[in-house]
Amino acid sequence: MRITDLLKKDTVILDLTAINKDGAIDELSQKLNEAGRLADLESFKQAIHDRENQSSTGIGEGVAIPHAKTKAVKEPAIAFGRSASGVEYDALDGQKSHLFFMIAASEGANNEHLQTLSRLSTLLMDENFRQTLMEADTVDRILRAVDEKETEKLGAEAADQETQEPSEKPFVVAVTGCPTGIAHTYMAADGLKAKAKELGIDIKVETNGSDGVRNRLTDSDIERAAGVIIAADTKIEKERFAGKPLVDAPVKDGIRKPEDLLNKAVSGNTPIFQGDGSGKKAESGTQDKRPGFYRHLMNGVSNMLPFVVAGGILIALSFIFNEPGAEETHPFGDILSMIGSEYGFFLMVPVLAAFIARSIADRPGFAAGMVGGLMAVNFEAGFLGGIIAGFLAGYLVLLFRRVFAFIPPSLDGIRTILILPLFGVFFTGLIMYFLVTPLNALSVGIENWLGGLGTGNIVLMGILLGAMMAVDMGGPINKAAFTFGIAMIEGGNYAPHAAIMAAGMVPPLGIAVATTFFKSKFTKQEQDAGKSNYVLGASFITEGAIPFAAADPGRVIPSIITGSAVAGGLAMLFGTATQAPHGGIFVLLLVENWPLYLLAILAGTAVTALMLGFWKKRVAV
User: Fold this and answer.
1) How far, in whole angstroms, is CA 414 from its chain's centroid?
2) Which residue from 501, 483, 491 is spatially nearest to 576, judged by alpha carbons?
3) Which member of 335, 464, 526, 540 has the greatest number of CB atoms within 10 A?
4) In whole angstroms, what is the distance from residue 365 CA to residue 420 CA?
């Protein structure tokens, strides 16, 4: 199948009117829809935007290739658009985009269609071809230029498949892959091959695209390779490269920085990939080149997030059936509360720790991380204790992997399944025991200190209690403040707990508002999680802020502490009070001076949201 079988006259726009990214997507999508290629225009546009949220398809050099594979496509097609003035498309090189190829792949597209669609992306690597498209003054000339360039490309591919003579040049193997597997996968492959030829390096590139793995690397390829390059934003089988110098990079670097990757691969200074010792193919992602600490932390946070969201919402729903503090409860409300709190929230920190450890040490680290995280919960060390447990477990397992490196390969299975988990669990648990036990004394000490403040300065007390609610979001400091509030209720002083509950609602609410009004500062996943924080915050579930604080503690924690301190101080200043120990917004009418109480919450929420909006950096695309 040829590209011109998918790119037709009725899907070409010689003069795009759009001036921004959204406009270009709308215009090209509408062209495909008018040509009868789409089954659902809005669903298709959403799929395009979802792909853009992963990383911009503005590849630079004036080219953008928005693409999606979705059931909203009636039949595979390509739309072409050209803008003489250019469109701001968040391109990788920061320049405007002039040439647009919108690729629409149907969910059931066969390999022939997918190979044709992917071939188009590689043609656009040629500067002369791009110039020809810019200068063509008719639709027919556009189509003819594409057809001629494709013929040239097919001839080159046939030549590459011929048996080559043995070479003395350095040999490198590479793997490319992107989430959709249509465009960037093959552009990165072509970028690496073209630059390798220029540098005098032999290369074989495996592509992991929508049509499956092509040009798969063999054991002999890997054995004779001087280095390995993985330029991918998807999960790649990495264990096969154990013992080889390995360069990890996002797929865009295969397009934009192929020379850097190739030079690193053959430099002799690239770290050797150790693997997990299992001899199996690991499912390790290579999504970015961010520092290891951040990458491991985000692995834990992303796996913890479903427990926070599901558990928190179930707890909030239980308030519909059970009034907080009531002696008689509804059975279904009890069930919701039990599932959400005793199981959903209970597993949150252990899962965080387990997946941090797994990111560091792969499967052997998982058990040690889970045990360490469970100890953090039982000793009330909070999510900070979970983070400590995860990194401790992961690096301990790496240490023991080196210690037991003398075990012969024939016994690798025993080392991975028995020895590493055993020593990892024991030493992680032993160290965590001595790390978390003192936190109990810290918690009690803080509670006693707060009680000593009395009423000497109620506003200062409100500020202090509010700040404490946000410091560790469910950890010992948060619990110390909450316990102090309960003790005050039992003693007949209802004001402190009103400040505590107002302040505890602010972190998730402030984050929810920030993700709504400052979307460019948050990833798509964070924006989605932010919506659930409206419910969590309104329900006085401070833990909804944990994933955001764990991902960016330097900016998020000061922002939520400030907002919570404002809410707590104002609640005390306004003379609010409540006998309800929990319930958030659902017990608003049980709060004395509730209009001013609500104002205190809104003020703290606004402070947190504005600080996050102005302080956080824009999300890189």
Assistant:
1) 34
2) 501
3) 540
4) 8
Contacts of 209 (CB under 8 A, 6+ apart): 114, 118, 177, 178, 181, 182, 185, 186
**What count of other Cβ atoms lies within 10 Å of the Cβ of residue 83?**
24
The model's pLDDT over 525-579, given as tens digits with 9 standing for 90+, comes to 788 888 888 988 888 888 788 878 877 888 899 999 999 999 999 999 998 988 7
Across 463-502, b (16+ Cβ under 10 Å) vs e yields: bbbbbbbbbbbbbbbbbbbbbbbeebbeeeebbbbbbbbb
Burial of residue 188, with CB atoms counted within 10 A of its CB: 0-12 exposed, 13-18 middle, 19 or more buried: buried
Largest Cα–Cα distance in the chain? Answer: 90
Which sign, positive or negative, has the C-alpha torsion 371, 372, 378, 384? negative
Calpha distance 465→478 (Å, rounded): 9
Rounded Cα distance between 265 and 368, Å, is 34
pLDDT range class, residue 610, cuts 50, 70, 90: very high
Burial class (CB in 10 A: 0-12, 13-18, 19+), 589: exposed
Instruction: Classify each residue of 207-230 as buried b or exposed e, where b means 16 or more C-beta atoms within 10 Å of its C-beta.
Output: bbbbbeebeebeeeebeebbbbbb
| Structure token pair of residue 400 | 């023991």
**First-to-last CA distance in the chain?**
33
How far is C-alpha 559 from the chain's CA centre?
A: 21
Look at the chain and count its residues: 621
Q: What are the tens digits of pLDDT across the range 569-579?
A: 999 999 898 87
Q: How far is CA 519 from CA 23, 516, 543, in A?
A: 18, 6, 21
Q: In whole angstroms, what is the distance from residue 110 CA to residue 183 CA?
A: 16
Bin 83: left if φ > 0, else alpha if -120 < ψ < 50, else beta: beta
In this structure, are strands 63-64 and 97-106 parallel, antiparallel, or unpaired? parallel
Which two structure tokens, joined as six digits, stand for 128?
A: 């002369």
Task: Out of 145-149, 275-279, 601-605, pick the least confident.
Answer: 275-279
What stretch of H or E contains 7?
strand 7-13
Q: Which of 98, 113, 178, 296 is catalytic?
A: 178
Query: 3 to each of 30, 133, 143, 313, how far by Cα in Å?
Result: 20, 15, 9, 49
User: How many CB atoms are closer than 10 A to CB 395?
Assistant: 17
Helices 382-403 + 420-453 axis angle, to 10 = 160
Sign of the Cα pseudo-torsion (470, 473, 477, 483, in order):
positive
Q: Is 178 a catalytic residue?
A: yes
Distance (Å, rounded) from C-alpha 353 to C-alpha 391?
8
Amino acid at 161: Q
Start-end of H helices in 55-173: 111-123, 127-135, 139-160
| Residue of 67, 184, 497, 582 with catalytic role | 67
Q: Which residue has the tokens 């199981």?
A: 343
pTM (two decimals) = 0.42
54 in Cβ contact with 233 (< 8 Å): yes
Distance CA 271, CA 256 (A): 22
Give the count of beta carbons closer than 10 Å to the beta carbon of residue 563: 30
User: Is 49 annotated in the active site?
Assistant: no
Rounded to 5 degrees, φ, ψ at 86 are: 95, 155
Question: In 365-448, which ranges are E strands?
Answer: none
Six-digit token pair at 23?
Answer: 């406009």
Q: Where are the alpha helices (DSSP H) in 239-291?
A: 251-256, 258-266
CA quadruple 349, 480, 485, 492: dihedral sign: positive
